[in-house]
Amino acid sequence: MLYALGVGACLDDPMSHELKYVTENNSVTPLQALPTMCTVLGGVLGAPSPLDDIGDYDKRMSVHGSVELILHRPLSTQGSLVSTVAVDGIYDKKRGALVSMTVVLLGFLWVFEGGKWPEPF
Prior knowledge:
Layout: H1 2-6, E1 80-92, E2 97-108
Antiparallel strand pairs: 1-2
């Protein structure tokens, strides 16, 4: 919910279709995770990054290029996850470099429901 509010969900219209991302669980509008939230999950400030291993460079000159997101099912509003990051390639662009990375998040919902543990997704 805090992520959705932080990126402006329901900013223009508090009763819009985005209400499901910013409201507490209730019988009318159950809380859902904003799909783009997975772009920030798994990253912890100060955690090791694969960018630390590519050499010395001025991090202030870094520019974020793009993100491709593939969701195989909706994000859970609770649980835990494991993320892995790999550098796919580093490409010389003369005035800079392009670093291509793949991040894979594997989520597990650790809530006991209906007498069995849910399957990992």
